[in-house]
From TrEMBL:
CDD domains: S14_ClpP_1 (cd07016). The keyword Cytoplasm applies. Residues 241-253, 309-320 have a biased composition (Basic and acidic residues). This is ATP-dependent Clp protease proteolytic subunit. It comes from Breoghania corrubedonensis.
Amino acid sequence: MSVTISNGELLLYGFVGESYWGEGFTALEVQEALTEHGWSNDVTVRVNSGGGYIDDGIAIYNALTAHKGQVTMIVDAVAASAASVIAMAGDEIVMRSGAMMMIHDPAGYAFGTAEDHEKSRALLDKQADQMASIYADRSGQAVEEVRQAMKDTTWMTGDEAVEQGYADRTDKVRSLAATAFDYRIFSDTPRKLVALASRKGWSFDDDDRSKAATAAPTRQSKETSMAGNTAADDTTAAERATAKSEGASEAKARIKAIMTCEEAEGREGLAEHLAYDTETSSADAVKMLAAAPKATASATGEAASPANDDPKPAEFERRRLAAAGQAAPGQVKGSGEDGQSGRRTALKPGAIYAARRDAQKKG
């Protein structure tokens, strides 16, 4: 899911972190969306998530608390687990009619000796304490009370969330449907969410996962999750590799189309800028090149030095690609393969770009 801010609204729907079912958002995506929106502009964040990875959740929470504009947090349906941490970042937190909020202890998995498991437990305890401080700071409750509520896995309606300080008010606007998540892993989960997960086939279990219509694997690295244990799927790695290869081919074709078009002749500097420093499409780049004036002789430096001092453009490009004449261990400073020492040679950028373009056409 691509995270964007439209009309001042940031939509955080699905799994917190790399998506398990094809629905979700990451901390990086949220950071990029906020940067594009402008850190001083007000933003409304709409949340509908069963949770996910604690690291992404806390990173998003910190990004939103650092946002200079007003942050209005609206829980559309569910803000559970890591998503409830994100919700605490709102300057105002609104629970829509029928929406639910849940807080609990983080979960994870460990492999190894008893000492390894003890270290894992110590880490989970520290993370739980950090989360409790976030909840306590927002709700006004004592950290000890919050920790107990987390251990008990506490589900709250909108009114209960307001009463306990986790939200500011409720909204009579009807809540939306919950997003894909295996709500059955939580204790004391409302029956309607358990039934929904069963009906949709939302499961972290490999045998059940194939039943989900939007099933997709999650990240493969071991991370602490507030949703329990998850499994990786090799299919995603293959799909990503294919997509990356296709993207590289498209980028190469785009660059070649810009650098070898007729409109680039005499405008080589602009062509290189459009091809390598921007994401302008080849069609738009050709239009921009056609509208731009061609470089003059003085602009390209063609009259800067006598003709006998000018290197041949094609030869210079060949040597540039081969890194010829550059400093190397044991090489005498000021000497190169042409036997010249300390002599500065005037170059013709326009001619060099033309030679490079000709080489690309032949390739």
